[in-house]
Every structure is written in C-alpha cells, then in structure tokens.
Design goal:
The structure is a homodimer of 429-residue chains.
Chain A (H helix, E strand, L loop, with lengths): L6 E6 L1 H4 L6 H12 L6 E5 L3 H14 L2 E5 L10 H9 L3 E3 L1 H13 L6 H4 L3 E3 L3 E3 L8 E6 L2 E6 L3 H18 L10 E6 L3 H14 L4 E7 L2 E7 L7 H15 L3 E4 L4 H12 L3 E5 L5 H7 L8 E7 L2 H6 L5 H7 L4 H14 L4 E7 L14 E8 L2 E8 L4 H25 L12
Parallel strand pairs in A: 1-2, 1-3, 3-8, 13-14, 13-15
Antiparallel strand pairs in A: 4-5, 6-7, 7-8, 9-11, 9-12, 10-11, 15-16, 16-17
Helix pairs in contact in A: 2-7, 3-4, 8-9, 10-15
C-alpha cells in the first residue's frame, strides 16, 4: 500500500463566499475520497481574483501532496484559474491541438460560432495532461511536478462529477493513492434519536480500536459511517463490523448506504404486489412526494389527498362530520378516519395519514404547535400515534413525514416477514 | 467610514471534509456579512485535530483583520478549538465565574448532573469577552489583540445564528466594520432562464460602474443580487437601481428578497378572498407542498389530489375515461380536465394541474421523458401549456412545480390588477 497522501481542495468562486451557493463540491469530492480510504485534509474557498487564487494555491501546494481545484476554467474573463496557476508553476500555456479540434466541433454542433474566448479553453500548462470533458468545453487538467499532483476541474457539477469519477479516480487508483474498492460502510437508521443510536453503536468503537465512527442526524433519520483513518481495516472487515452493527440496531436499521425510507417501502410492497395511499393535512403533499420521488413508484403508490380544510376531509375522504366536530381535525380519531378513507378511495392495501399543527399559528393547550397525529391502515388493522416535534414549520413537516414513513416501513416489513393471524398494534405512541 | 477589513472564516469539523454535512455556516455567515457591505475573503475547512486547528488559525490570523471560527467549543473530548487557539495566542485559560454559574443552572434545569467536562465550557482565554449563548452551554468568545479581532462561535446552527445576529453583528457595527443597514438588494425572477435575465440586467452594470451583480439560478427561479465592493453606493442608491431593474424585468419580477412563489400567490389570493386547489400526477405532492410550506396558507389553499394512476384521475377528479383513453394521461386534454376537476372538487377559484413524465422510465416518441403538461383553471377560463425539462426525476419535478407556480402567479396578479371582461389566454406554450 502506498503511503498516506495529503489531499487539499481549493474551491474557487465568489458565490461561495457571498453565500449564494452551498459548497456542494466539497461535500461530493470529500465523500468520494473518503469512500476510498482517505480524508481530505483541508478545503479552502476563495474568490476568482488572481491574487486569491495564487496565494491559496501556493500555500496548498507547499502543504499537500495532491491539490484539487474547482472552477475558473471556462471561457469568460472571470475564468482565470488556468492562467494564474500556470504562471505560479512557472509553466507557459501551450495550445492543445487535439482539444482545440474537439472544442470547435462541440461548439459548431451547438450551432454557435467559435470565438477566441472559446479557444482559450484549449490552452494548457506545458506538460499537463487533458482530462476530457464529456459535458462541456473546458477540459480538466492533470499536472505532475516534484512528486506532487495538481488536478484542475471545471466548476459546473454536471461536468465535474463525471470527470472526477471517470478520469481522476482511476488515475489515483492506479497510483495506489485511492483504494479500488469502497473503503467505508454507511448505515441508515430511523425512528430513534442520534444519542440513542450513539449509545447502541459506540461499544463497537471500543471493540475495534481502528474504527472511525461518524454520525449525521437529519429530521429523524440518523446515518452512521464506519471507516478507518489509515486503511487498517479492509472493506471486508468493515462490512463484517457493519453486519454486527445491523444486528445491534434491530428494527431501527433501515439499510446500508443511504436508502430512502420510501424506497424500502416501495421495494417491499412491490415484492408483495401491494399498494399504499396517503391522506395528509399539515404535511400538505410532502408525504406523497416522498413516495413519488422513487422511480417506478407508480406500481406501489396509488395516490394521495391533501385535505387542508375540513370540507375536503369530509367530502373527499369521507371523514364523518360529527367526528371532526367532537374530536377536532387534529386528533387520533381523525387520523384514523383519514387513513381509512384514503385506503378506501384509492383501493390500497396500506394507507398513512398525518394531521397536526405544523405552526407557527394554531395549536391548543392539549395539542400545542408541533403536535402530530399519524394514522396507519394495514390489512391487519388501523392505529394512530401522537408525536410532538420542535422546530420551524418546515422542520415539523419533515419530521412528521419521516415518522409516518418509518412506521409504515416497520409495519410493511413486519407483515411481510411474519403475517400474524390477528391484529396486533405495532407500536403505540 | 472605516477602512475595508479582511474577514476570514474557519469552519472546524471533520464531517465537512468527509462530505457528511454541507458547509451551511459558510453560506449563512457569508450572506450576513455581504448584506452589510463586506465580503468574506476566505473560508477554510479543517478537521478538529489540534495541529489542523493551530495551523489554519495561525495562517488566517496573519492574513486577516478579523478571524471567525465555528465549532469545537462543546464539552466533549473532540472539542478542542478553545484550548488550541488560547495556546496559539499565548493566553492562559481562566475560569469565567459568571458563565460557570449560568452553565450550572442551565444543566441543572435540564435535570442533569454538572460534570467537569461541562465546566470546561466556562474557561476562556485571558482577556476574552463572553458572547452569551441562549440555546446552549458553550458561550462564544471575542478576543481583541494587536488591532485584530478573533470571534469563536459554537458549531450547532441554532446556537451560532442567534449569537451571530444578536452579539457579533452589533459589535461589528459599532466598530464601523459592518454597515448598520442591509447593503445589498436581492431580486427574485421566475419563468425565464439565467442568460435571459443576465441580458436584461447586465446593462445596469455598465450604467453604474460600481455595481456588483451576482446571479443564482435554481430550478427555474433566478435570483439577482446587487451590491458594491467598497460601499460606493449606499442602501438608498442600491434600492433605486433595483427599482429600475424591476421595471426592466416586468412580469418576470417576482419580488425583492427571496419570496417564495407560493407566498406571492397566497398573499394575492388572500387580498381577494379567493382560493386555489391542485391536482398532480408526476409532481406527486410537491406542488401542494409548495403551498402548504407557507404559514397561514390554509386560508387560500383548499387542497390537492395526487392522482398517480388513471383510476384516481377518473374516480376522484372526474377525468372522463374516454379522454384518458384517446389522449393519454400525459396530454393537454388530461391536464385541463384535472385542473377543472380539482377546482370543482375543492370548490376553489383557481386550480393548477401537472401531468407528465418525470423519468427515468416512461415517455413516448412525441412526449419524451421530461415532458410536462400544466393545466390552469381560473375564473376566466382554462388553459394548458406543454414544457420539457432536462435533468433527473427530482429536478424535473421541481422545475415543473416552479413553472406551474409561476404561471399561476402571473395569472392571479393579472386578474387582480385588470380583470378583463372576456377570457384571454395568458401565455400559451
């Protein structure tokens, strides 16, 4: 195994510093490298001013073995990365005739005239290698010098990501800088908080001293990532530890990787030839959306009703008016009636409903803002569950949707693995 | 006016480099500073290893006038920012008795026992000032030294943001480093591409030489931000330029700031006492969700149906079966019937519908993946519009929702300002 290399990433563009755009390149490239057994040692974001590019590159080039830059390779006057870095390295820019030809064809095929500013993109620092760009006119650049590597990538995501995957990763694998196989394992959990997950998983960190464990919690879903800092454990060993973790987590384990809750439900229902429908009030379409984000979900998702007012609950879902009057729209009784109504309207096997106060207005003494009732209709019975979530309106919606999905996931899986003869409530809140 | 200061931000935490979390602090703090007439000059993300914190801080402290750090102030062993930076500055850590008391009360009130690790959070570098934390136990720290300022903020967003707003910004205003009033103007546009917006707005950049113009495009919405690099134009001047821009943009102008399309529709309908309903197929709840994200939308949003299969279209929305057979579910005719059905079912004044192929499967020769039909029902008539969006399933859904919202926005505003006696189609695709 080659020695551990220091990799730094320089993300160039004022929009990052102005807060106009999230630094997605950092997250994406950081994950790609972590997957293969290394960790980015630093990220620097600077503007596209020549002095900022020069200074940040000079510093990184001293510290690191590998420097990756993103942005500033395009045809406009603001795109200065190529020129500034070539000068810093003391290498003249030379024409790459092969890429100039590809460039001219690409632009001509778009029905546009080739301008001098386009041709600038076929200039490369002397001795650099071209990284072909399948989705644009600016090639990436690979420069080896003094035992170090410089990789310059274009800024647009749809150009950067395929180039990194298809051109950069294979080269770094060949140089034995990155591992050829994924070198970390991710586990998704749901329905329990980050501290509870940590309590269950942390003992593995003591049992396996070289295990790195990272957690990321998001709206009721907690991801756990296992890796090793210096490739002490191989991929098989990591997977074996992850399998052990799965057993510890039990029903809280959703899947390896980052599977969507809706995906698990969709896959399980599909195997059984079953369907699901939804009825939602305060989550207002977001629960239905979680199903329809899944490709092919039209096979298992029958549809949904967003019944934002009582009239719709009565007329479209058949919730009895007297029930709404007596118990209120935000109640266990209404949640159950909504789930039953959705299952009947859409002739589905399963149905989930959500009603509650997402805030900032609304709420009662007994059910303050953040109170949510979830209803679940299954072939074996119908239940409801009360929860309370803190946070903004949008956060409450997301948490409520994830809670409904997770309950449905558990129930769909339970009924698949062990269809009981009688109705037993799965878990009651 | 004080001279322009160099501000750097150091975001500390391995999760950023591993790609587990987007660097939200950079975007948020970057925007807060840009609003007040300055621009972050650099952002560095490093792990929480002592040598990484020390090196990045030492470098930034040499380059910048103001250094802001985020993260690593909490009670756990991984939280080392306070210790490392105090040592780098050559200042011993001393107990802050006032904060120790606040800390003890906070933890006791949570019903927990005060541990030595908690008390660590009341240690501050000698001569530092406490920035109170209303939502946690780790205070922020403010250190003045050699004409420079160091600001250390806790990592959790709900602690960092109020602290920055309530403690940091007022101090920087008092020192005349940040402007007391917003120093940029944002304009949201919709329905036209980034290059078209640029074509309309760019002449203002020639007319006003100190004007900085930044664009940010997202799923059919384009934001334009006006600022000046060195505070050459005051807030009133910037607003006057923005008003000029509004006139140039005409109907493509959505609002100042970043108003949601659903918010504009909601506000306008509310003034008129009108309502809207939706019927959606491929956007699967995401259109309804755009309305229900708006606080108070229950007054104007009657509800929606997600009719993911033909049965639901026929039975719930009353789309004629023969129409579906003849023209298909993805057609202008079905879009119109869905919008009419939604308006009738929910007794609403307006209704929007979406049907299409979001991909990756589906599509026909005539209507390939990405083809979307939008239907619009208004008190004055009913129309449809065909669009095609490139991208992934989720991108197509978002673009389709924004297109439907924007069409509805234009029509709701048009009918409010000038209710014509006869039906005239607003714009046909």
């Amino acid at each position: 195994m080659a020695s551990r290399k220091k990799i730094e990433l320089i993300t160039i563009g004022e929009e990052l510093l102005l807060g106009l755009r999230l630094n997605g390149h950092l997250s994406w490239i950081g994950e790609q490298i972590a997957r293969r057994g290394l960790t980015l040692s630093r990220n620097t974001s600077v503007s596209d001013q020549p002095e900022d590019i020069e200074q940040s590159f000079t510093e990184a080039w001293q510290r690191a073995d590998i420097v990756i830059t993103t942005g500033g390779l395009g045809p406009t006057a603001d795109d200065r990365t190529r020129e500034v870095i070539a000068e810093t390295l003391g290498r003249p820019l030379v024409r790459h005739l092969g890429w100039e030809k590809i460039l001219e064809e690409y632009i001509t095929n778009l029905g546009r005239k080739v301008l001098p500013s386009h041709r600038k993109q076929a200039l490369i620092p002397e001795g650099a290698e071209i990284l072909p760009n399948k989705n644009g006119t600016a090639p990436g650049l690979w420069v080896s010098a003094k035992g170090k590597i410089l990789i310059m990538l274009p800024g647009p995501t749809q150009e950067l990501q395929p180039m990194f995957r298809d051109e950069v990763v294979p080269r770094l694998e060949m140089l034995e800088i990155l591992r050829c196989k994924d070198h970390f394992v991710e586990i998704r959990t749901a329905g329990v908080g980050e501290s509870v997950v940590e309590q269950m998983v942390a003992p593995l960190g003591e049992k396996y001293p070289h295990l790195q464990i990272a957690y990321c919690a998001m709206d009721g879903v907690v991801d756990v990532r296992f890796s090793t800092a210096n490739q002490e454990y191989g991929p098989d060993k990591l997977q074996a530890i992850a399998d052990e973790c799965r057993t510890i987590l039990g029903d809280d384990f959703v899947g390896f990787g980052q599977p969507l809750l809706g995906q698990i439900i969709n896959d399980t229902l599909r195997e059984e030839g079953q369907t699901v429908a939804v009825a939602e009030s305060c989550t207002g379409g977001f629960l239905a959306n979680a199903f329809t984000d899944i490709p092919g979900s039209s096979k298992t998702f029958s549809g949904g009703v967003v019944c934002y007012n009582n009239d719709a609950k009565v007329q479209i879902l058949g919730v009895p008016e007297c029930l709404l009057k007596q118990h209120g729209a935000v109640s266990a009784e209404t949640a159950v009636a909504m789930a039953a109504g959705a299952a009947e309207k859409f002739s589905s096997d399963f149905a989930a409903s959500v009603t509650g106060f997402a805030g900032p207005g609304g709420g009662t003494l007994e059910s303050p803002v953040g109170t949510i009732f979830i209803g679940l209709h299954t072939p074996q019975g119908i239940w409801s569950k009360k929860c309370n979530f803190p946070g903004t309106r949008v956060t409450v919606k997301k948490r409520a949707v994830n809670m409904a999905l997770d309950w449905l996931r558990r129930e769909v899986l339970r009924q698949q693995s062990d269809p009981p003869p009688e109705a037993i409530p799965p878990y009651l809140g």
